Amino acid sequence: MGSKYDVLVIGGGNAALCAAISARRGGASVLVLEGAPKFYRGGNTRHTRNMRCAHDAATEILTGPYTEQEFWEDLLLVTGGQTDEVLARHMIRESKDILNWIVEQGVRWQPSLGGTLSLGRTNLFFLGGGRAMLNALYLTAERLGVDVEYDAEVTDLVIEDGMFVAARLKRPINGETEIRATSLVAAAGGFEANIEWLKQYWGEAADNFLIRGTPYNRGSILKMLLDKGVQEVGDPTQCHAVAIDARAPKFDGGIITRHDSVVFGIVVNKHSQRFYDEGEDIWPKRYAIWGRLVAAQPDQIAYIIFDSTVVTSFMPTLFPPIAGQTIAELAAKLDLDPAALEKTIIEFNAAVRPGTFDHTILDDCVTEGITPPKTHWARRIETPPYLAYPVRPGITFTYLGTRVDKQARMLMADGKPSANMFAAGEIMAGNVLGKGYAAGMGMTIGSVFGRIAGREAAKHARN
Amino acid sequence: MHGTRILDKADRLMTVCNSCRYCEGLCAVFPAMEMRRAFSDGDLNYLANLCHSCGACYVDCQFSPPHEFNVNVPQTLAVARAESYAAYAWPQALSGVFGRNGLVISIVAALSMAAFILGFAALNDRGVLLGVHTGPGAFYKLMPHNAMAALFSAAFLYAILALVMSVRAFWRDIGAPIGGRPDGGSIFQAIRDAGELRYLDGGGVGCYNEDDTPTDRRKLFHHLTFYGFLLCFAATSVATLYHYLLGREAPYPWWDLPVVLGTLGGIGLVVGPIGLLVAKSRRAPELLDETSYGMDVGFIAMLFLTGLTGVLLLLLRETAAMGPLLALHLGAVFALFITMPYGKFVHGIYRFAALVRYAQERRSEAGS
């Protein structure tokens, strides 16, 4: 026999901690089970840096208003309408208060980071980044009396007729145990680090994916819930994926492996062919599509190619660019066919029309007569050394999840709400994000639904 | 490639940090880093001395050990900082002193000086050393004022010369892109930043010591130590003016300015260093450069000794202990002076110069 809590929170990131704190403040006894060791606690939260919140007026930190309606329109745009309008509008409304509530939990904001000025109006940045945010939330939770266990691997959930009864837990030292609780909050993230599971949908291509977060995001809780009758939401192939440096580690490379240079050059696949308009829109609106674009290329690899004139136009990178004095030399270093790459660049250069370059706006530098076109910021690649970054799909988090209602209560396969099971964060992000992404939304989903789930779980436990 | 292994390491680290930038709101190091895409030796020594070792960027970093990127900014910059002291030392022949145990150097200097004064007084007359002296000129029965003034002026002026030459070399190395003389506004900004230890605050919540809970009190104890030191210096300066301008000789009554300043300063110099030593002993070793432990403790101990002997001298100046205590106090002060350019004292000078440079850079960036 194990112990009995009012609220059991499984997971250890932003959503889990917001749930734990809000449940504890609601008067419940709370246990947080984090599957990772203490250093890696917090799942993807440790790699985040900002949150998107609606607000009606500029603040010390935010440069202008961002209304609920505008937030809704942005969400509609990135998801192409694949969202649950009732839930999404509820989340957006709640986000207005979250930007204050989260500060009351010890998290501190700073103005938008250097190099991300386009987010200064819509997004709040964590002082010190996501791990600083986590540290603050853990400190607050522990001061309030929330119990936290690390390396706590949940091996099974006991669910009877849509009611959570207990969780089976394997501790590294004390072995198997069972933890009973009146309510459950599942906030254990997606399954992006589970390559076998990804392969079910992506096939062998998934072997070439790099995972931006820790290896602990294996989706085991999500799988247990879906297997035990919780209703599924979202397309299992949909995820937040960006193009990251192919030299990055398999797991947990985080933010510093990303590349912001796509709009300044061209992107080719292993056959030296361009495959998408690199200048379609400003980078913060497009960075999150490039992971999928590269995933669709042969061997899931691509190369961002530019010349020495633009090297200082984007943030410095962890891995230096690969350089060649000629296109042929560069191609050889990248294992590309030199003749093919030369042909692509000659054709591209010939298609560039004169214009006035300005990377801060949708400028008039376009190509003519090639497919795909580059519709902004098109400039000839002609000043050696020629430079390249190899990129692969970097998976941040998956969208397949558990369906919830406005109280963050899980819905069972028959459509009935569970009496005592709630979900928050990436494990239910698919309710709001059918596809696509806009910077900072993952944290909004985590904090808003975490807070709601904790409150509702405590309310249930105390009734 | 840089001159030393630690600078190579710092360069790698700054390249990692510059592609992340999550820490840019914590202190001055990261905004200064962002103004560069490549780092010279001077740049890295500048960043190393700008770092106050608050530890916030370590506990906030998603890539700190055991992560494979192994990002440990406080420790790497601490090692680079300690090596920079030796690199800029004047004369270069004495740079090796930094590598040795600062505690030993300081204690040897203090003991030898104390022994020298004791011997000096004892040789003159045992009754004088162990006698009870009161009233104006009591101290000078043990050592003539002019001898004392000459000896300490020489030690002090040498320390000033060595420090000026060292910081000049540092300034030349870090000043490259802007260079030239610092403007008044930047100096004023740096005085404020140093005076309030603006960047010794963990990005606002306090510094980190044992773990990821901001429980550190080093800022408070550093204030006590630093302002205690300044008050003691002011006490000595006022007393010198009294002596030469007003013809009034020490010791002064308890309510007189030099004694009031010296007493307050002395208390700061006793409490502050004890607090700093306790805080230091609790610090997580992964944040520290363990090779400079001796140097750090040596300097703190010298400040403590100076403060303690000064306070005891005040309390017991009308007893027979005055002679030996005066000798010990003068010995401690003398040792403090001559080891200043070759010990932890220089951290304040280099950090101040780095803060001036940072203020300059901020102004130039805002102006451009």
UniProtKB/TrEMBL annotation, chain A:
Arranged from A to Z, the UniProt key words for this protein are: FAD, Flavoprotein, Oxidoreductase
**What is any Pfam family matched here?**
FAD_binding_2
Q: Which residues form the signal peptide?
A: none
FAD-dependent oxidoreductase 2 FAD-binding domain span: 6-432
Q: Which GO terms describe its molecular function?
A: oxidoreductase activity
Could you say which cofactors this protein requires? FAD
Instruction: Respond yes or no to whether keyword Lipoprotein is given for this record.
Output: no
| Name assigned to this protein | FAD-dependent tricarballylate dehydrogenase TcuA
The species this protein belongs to is Bradyrhizobium cytisi
Question: Which gene name belongs to this protein?
Answer: tcuA
From TrEMBL, chain B:
The record's section on SUPFAM superfamilies has: 4Fe-4S ferredoxins, Respiratory nitrate reductase 1 gamma chain
- Transmembrane parts of this sequence: 103-123, 143-164, 224-245, 257-279, 291-315, 321-342
Question: Is Membrane tagged as a keyword?
Answer: yes
Alphabetically ordered keywords of this record: Membrane, Transmembrane, Transmembrane helix
Q: Which Gene3D superfamilies match?
A: Transmembrane di-heme cytochromes, Chain C (1.20.950.20)
The family database entries (NCBIfam families) matched by this protein are listed as:
CitB
What is the designated name of this protein? Tricarballylate utilization 4Fe-4S protein TcuB
Organism of provenance: Bradyrhizobium cytisi
